[in-house]
Every structure is written in C-alpha cells, then in structure tokens.
Design a protein that fits this description.
The protein has two domains: 5-180, Rossmann fold (3-Layer(aba) Sandwich), CATH 3.40.50; 229-334, no CATH class. It is 42% helix and 14% strand. The chain has twelve helices and nine strands. The chain has helices at 11-23, 35-50, 70-76, 97-110, 127-135, 157-162, 171-177, 213-218, 259-279, 282-291, 297-311, 318-334, and strands spanning 5-10, 31-33, 54-63, 81-88, 94-95, 116-120, 139-144, 165-168, 178-180. The strands form two sheets. A seven-stranded mixed beta sheet has the order 5-4-3-1-6-7-8, sandwiched between helices. A two-stranded antiparallel ribbon has the order 2-9.
Length: 335
C-alpha cells in the first residue's frame, strides 16, 4: 500500500478561529466562508508539508439531531471529503464531535490508513487520542489558524506537547476564503412628491387586510413591563434565566467579581455584540428580541468560547457564565 496523508478538520475550531481573525470574535454568523477553496488549500498544505498524496479529508461538525443541513451536504459531496457529524446538546454545545475525532484518529492509526495525520484543532480533549495514535507509528501534525499577529489561535498547550509538530495554515488562504459579513442598513426611502389627482369620480373598494406574525409583533401593545436590571440566561435550548450573583450587576459597584475578569467579560461581550449587529438580518434581530431572556446558542457559544480564550481558561465556572450572559443583555440595552 502506498504512503498517504489524512486530514482531520474540527470545523468548530476552524471557523471560530477564522472568524476571530477576521472579525475579532468567534461568532460564526459574522463570516461568509467559501468552503471548497478553503478545503482545497488545506489539502494542498498537507500534501506539500508531508510530500504524500491525500487519502481523505474528515470534516467534523455539529448538526441538529445529527442531520446535515444543506451546506453540510454540499461539503460532504466534495471530492475525498468524509462528513462526520455530532449533534447539539440541550445547552447548545456540540456533542460527540471530539469523541468522533478521537475514535477515528486511533482506529485509522491502528489500521495503518495513512502515515501522517494532519489535525486542524486546538482542543485539549484530543490530547490522549493523539498520543494513542502515535503508539501505532503515525505522525500527528497540528495545523492551527494564525491570529492577525501570526500566532496559532486557541491551541491547548497539552495538545501542542503531545503532537509531533505545530504548523500554521497559510494566512492568505484563510483571508481569501473567509470574509466578514457587513450588512449595511438600508437607505431610508424618500416618498415621491404627491401629484394632483385627476378630477373624475372615484370608486373605493374595501379590502381585507391579512397581518403576518411580524406585523402583529410590530403593533404597539401598550407600555411594556419594566425589565430587571440584570437578566441572566442560558441558550435558547433551555429558555431558563439564571440567578443573579450577589453583588454583581446591581449597579452599586461593590461586586465580588475580580476587576480584571470583569473587564475581559465586557470586552468579549462588546465584540460579540458588534459582530452580531453588523452581520444580523432584521429577522435575526427580531428572533433575539423574542428569545429574551434566553440567548441564541450561536451567540452563547461565541461568548463562552471568546471568554475562554481571553481568560486562558477552557473550563469556565458558573459565575463567569452568569456574568457573561448578564452583561450581554445589559450592553445590548445600552447600545
């Protein structure tokens, strides 16, 4: 059997890191991705780096109930691409993706599928799988997305130590395939100048008016009930508001939270909000408004991931999670 290389792509890591490079936050809705050229550039990098032909690309992502959406189906139809899907948990976090990557790395290494494995991920949970694959004589090379400063983005130190090498994806390839979404507000329509109507008899015809749910939502319903100063929320999957932490978000400035940590939380929240507002459609904004106090899972995931990166802590405690979600609504209302 001829020697080959294989490519294992953690889509969550790839897109979150690329989005951070382009927009400053990991919110995936803030970017548009040309998947075919991006995958082709990764294949070319793996083949050039190893000097071996590619056996296969393994593309790992999450999907609702494990069923691929239209975009994922198109990716799975690309040449030499194998689609491997996990699912979303009740809190909006992906489930089964890391396990699938780890199992595939070990099984393919045991079966001698390829000589060199290229892993596009930074997840600490893959460390043991990398080490087990190496036991079977496979070389494992990490491919990281570079930050704007040229450093590898969001790669666990444990994973770096376990892998044989760490290399960066060509930044030009990322910039060419990943673009920032910027929905400019529509220009205000200027009504045409009224024209004189002809002096002739007119006939008025009564018409029924059909109102859509969006129309009904726009009708003023009287004064709204005041919202609490601090609303803490989980993802839309749970719909359950959290409990306010003592001394935080009550406006007295005597909070128990660490000042530097609070500054980082505000920094993360403002970046995610800015990216959302630049890329969101009117329907997206209406959905966010209707979901309150819950936070849509893509926004919630970006908040948690960005906070984990800036705090260098990939196991955020409940206190930090509560404060992130609380500050999201507070900053949203201030804007």
């Amino acid at each position: 059997m001829r020697s080959t290389c294989s490519l294992y792509i953690d889509t969550g890591y790839l897109l979150a890191s690329a989005a951070t490079r382009v927009t400053g936050t990991s919110l995936r809705s803030g970017i548009h991705v040309e998947y075919s050229p991006l995958i082709s550039s990764l294949v070319a990098a793996a083949e050039a780096r190893s000097g071996l032909p590619l056996l296969r690309v393994h593309w790992y992502d999450s999907a609702k109930n494990g069923v691929p959406d239209a975009q994922q189906e198109r990716i799975g139809e690309l040449s030499k691409v194998k689609l491997r899907l996990g699912r979303f948990g009740v809190n909006g976090e992906q489930k089964g993706v890391d396990l699938r990557i780890g199992l595939d790395l070990v099984a393919h290494a045991r079966n001698g599928a390829s000589d060199v494995f290229f892993l596009v991920s930074g997840d600490d949970d893959l460390t043991e799988a990398v080490e087990e694959a190496q036991v079977h004589g496979v070389q494992v090379v990490l491919l990281a997305v570079p930050t704007v400063d040229g450093k590898p983005h969001g790669v666990s130190r444990h994973l770096i130590r376990a892998a044989d090498e760490l290399d960066s994806i060509d930044d030009a390839a990322v910039d060419a395939a990943v673009m920032k979404v910027d929905r400019q507000p529509l220009p205000e329509r200027i009504p045409p100048e009224p024209t004189a109507a002809p002096t002739r008899p007119t006939v008025t015809v009564a018409r029924s008016v059909v109102r859509t749910p969006l129309d009904l939502a726009a009708i003023p319903q009287g004064p709204a009930a005041p919202r609490p100063a601090s609303v803490l929320a989980y993802s839309t999957s749970t719909g359950s508001p959290g409990r306010a932490l003592p001394g935080y978000g009550d406006g007295d400035g005597d909070g128990d939270g660490d000042g530097e940590q609070d500054r980082l939380i505000d920094e993360v929240v403002m970046r995610v909000l800015a990216s959302f507002k630049e890329s969101a459609t009117s329907d997206d904004k209406l959905e966010l408004k209707r979901a309150r106090p819950s936070i849509p899972r893509d926004i919630d995931r970006a908040l948690l991931l960005d906070a984990a990166v800036v705090m260098q802590n990939y196991d955020l405690d409940e206190g930090v999670r509560y404060r992130l979600r609380s500050r999201f609504w507070e900053k949203h209302d201030e804007a």
